[in-house]
Amino acid sequence: MSTPSADEKKVKLWDFPVRLFHWALVIAIVTAWWTNRQVMIDIHAIAGYSVLALVIFRIIWGFVGSSNARFADFLTGPKRVINYVLKIPNGTMSELTYAGHNPAGGWMVLVMILLVGVQAVSGLFASEDTFLFFDGPLVAYVSSDVASIMNWIHHTNINLIYAAVGLHVFAALFYLVVKRENLIRAIVIGTRRVPVELAGRFANIRFASPVLGIVLLIICALVVWGGVTLARG
């Protein structure tokens, strides 16, 4: 492994709970997509429940987690987002100046959380024969009209998720190939190299306990599992 150059410094960027959430969500979404194509409904449902637990965890972590994982840190006003986007064509923006998500990326995180959250929740109430006459665990508590609406949301919203995922992947590859900034590596190992003069910005990140994050994630998983089990009777 190469070492930082004299004018660069390795800084910690993403905490373990954020990285665990990110890659667990990737695995859950890919699993849900694949099992949907293969009509493997039981695994598809488990993937959906996993997504729901992850979303609940991320929402909580967005308030009690590390400082750069909190919504208040990366959700900015429209002016900052527009100014950031306008800098993209002339190449004057750089992720090296952000100790977390950039203004546009921050809102992309929220959009993704909302989209996958809607997908997971709608699946709880869906009832259809596409998946071998599968009924969601909460379908018995709503009318057939509501179940029909949830079916429509479930089948329509997935296309928005595909679009959001595609945009997210494109942005990561754009920075890797065009800007020569490896954002993917940072979300894998949690650190990145920045110019020494910018390292101070990253030193201001207040990291929450990874143990707290893991405990919260386990609690969220147990809540979802318990709720589904009770609903199934």
TrEMBL record:
Sequence ranges assigned to domain Cytochrome b561 bacterial/Ni-hydrogenase in this UniProt record: 14-188
First-listed, main subcellular location of the protein, grouped into a coarse class: membrane
Stretches that traverse the bilayer: 20-36, 43-64, 104-126, 138-154, 160-178, 211-231
Alphabetical UniProt keywords: Cell membrane, Membrane, Transmembrane, Transmembrane helix
UniProt membrane topology term: Multi-pass membrane protein
InterPro entries (UniProt xref): Cyt_b561_bac/Ni-Hgenase, Di-haem_cyt_TM, Hydrogenase_cytochrome
Pfam families: Ni_hydr_CYTB
Compartments where found: Cell membrane
Top-level taxon: Bacteria
Annotated protein name in UniProt: Cytochrome B6
Native source species: Thalassospira indica
